[in-house]
Amino acid sequence: MSENFRKAMVVFIAVLASVLVIFNPLYGVDSFITDHLYTKLSGTDSKIIIVGVDEETLAAYGNFNVWSREKMAALINKMYENPENAPAVVGLDFIFADDYYESSDKMLVDAIKDNKANVVAGTNIVYRGRVEHDSKGGVYYNTEHIEKIEMPFDGLSEVVTPGFTNECIAKDGYVRYAMNAINLPEDIGKGFQDSFACAVYKQYYSVVGEKINIPGKNSNSQFQFRYSGQTGEFSKLSLEAILDNRVPSTAFKDAIVLVGAYAPGFQDSYQPASDRGSTMYGVEIHANIIQAYMQGKTMVVANRFIMAFMTVVLLELFFMLAHGYKLPIRMGSSLVFAGGYLFVGRLIAVAGLCIPCVYMLIMIAIIDFYFVVDNYQKELKEQMWSFTEAMAAAVDERTPYNASHTRNVARYCGMVVDYINSLNAKGLEKEYYSQSKKEQLVFAALLHDIGKMAVPLAVMNKSTRLGGREKDIEKRFEKFRLQARVAMYEQGKSKDWCADISNKTFEAWDLICRVNAVGFIEEETRNELEKVMQYEYEGEPFFTDEEKDCLRIVKGTLTEAERKVMESHVVITKRILSKVHFNRQFRNTVELAGQHHEFLNGKGYPDGLTAKELSSGARIMAVADICDALLATDRPYKKPVPMEKAFEIMRDMAEKGNIDGKYVEYLYYCLKQRDKLEG
Q1: What domains does the chain contain, in order, with CATH numbers?
Q2: Does pTM surpass 0.85?
Q3: pLDDT in tens, 119-146
Q4: What is the 3-class SS of 380-428, one letter each residue?
Q5: What is the helix (H) or strand (E) element at residue 640, kind and residue range?
């Protein structure tokens, strides 16, 4: 490839890598990789013991919601009955927010007070979004507004350390983050409140005399932690077994005892990032967080802007160093580089910093693709467009019914532009396209259908109105005929009645076979359809409402709802492309790609733009797109239209003000000339 193209590739790598790292669109994929890469289960600390309110306990004592606090008081007394074997700290992962029975509430308070127990009790932060004003007077919706904190009841709050038990669930549904503390709103309190795990950790280290190290946090006040054990791996005792004296008091000596829900009925289970195939009770997650505090197994996410810069530097360095070697060496160096990056990422994670991995792998794959293209392409033009054509091919190859469409549209755009320039050279056309402007149009054309990657194949591949429902209808008709014959013999129905049912099923079936795949249904046929769609057998309609909607499609094979889904690809295309920082030459890519279904009369979509808002490039692309759709031999909903008929249709569209008639004639001339040359 030329030096200019290599420089363009350098810019492309920098832009795309920056966009991916900064905006993190593949958060779920990256988290999947880093969760497995950074997590090494080291085994649980024997000093952390879980006392579970489990099925055994519930079977013995009944529903937890009707318990008095007497059992918790008994548990405290049991664990502290021998001071030499007392736990270092007890964490109650329950919200004792309301007064229950005065006597049992007092028993719990007295048990903690009399035993001088070191207890952390759970609180619950209630979030409720609200509209707020920022420092500049702007309005925004704060989803993290704290409406209230459910605290232990008054007597209990005086003898325990509070800690909020809310789990930090990531946007992909897994728990990998935790918080040290929250800043209390002025209308609730002052200062900070520690999280449950942080409060237990602080209390424990205060007892054992160790230095308390509070980890750093991200901008959202969260940090990432690494799990130590899987579900059920921490030492666990049943509360019922303890109260029944089946557990020796030595089991709690100097331990961190966490008391929490350990039965499905509590609905206190979450998906741990360390083991995606299982769920973990909240108390187990707290245990993992506490051990992460104790062993320094916490991480903060690297600054996305610094990480974007470092990613770009590493990629560009790799690109320049590997560029001069032959393809096998390039590919081998890619594997070494990717493996090295993942290895270093794991080392950095141990040191407390979490870096993204998936984007580096994606960019290495993209660079490898460039290397493959570089090995075979010789001329600048082929080199310039190979990567973009590959992206367009990905859209086209998603379904056999869209094969080559994107590339055909780009080719037609280039043909029209070349013809415009030839007319300009003869003084017959004022408009002129520079090479840069032409490349901009063709580039946008290659990307104009990228949004179809999000359109379901069931919609894109729908070749008939019924879309695969034919077999259900055929079986239903067979059932009706069989039921009619049975009714004739067993219920005394007449032969004429049975024959009428049979004839109606065959009539309906013949009709839908005729119209199911045709492009347009005439009014007379539509009236016939409405008639047969009213047929019933003993009150059961011949057709479901959904099937009727499909059969009422006048033109094409898509229902109105399916058509809206298909048309949404333009909006998705614009949304995807708007994320990319195109260089100056391609700055109009989003605009051009997003306007290929706009009409001059304002009746197009998605924005209903009019002639004065549509550039010549957008008009050319609209003509090229319609032309290829008409000529295509691979569309599921229609037969290919002969070229003369296709342009007759397009001229009619131009007369109605939909598309630009000048470019229709230009493309017609170009295709005729092509046919002569290929002749």
Answers
A1: 3-38+303-376 (no CATH), 48-296 (no CATH), 390-457+568-678 (1.10.3210.10), 470-557 (no CATH)
A2: no
A3: 999 999 998 888 887 777 788 888 778 8
A4: HHHHHHHHHHHHHHHHHCCCHHHCCHHHHHHHHHHHHHHHHHHHHHCCC
A5: none
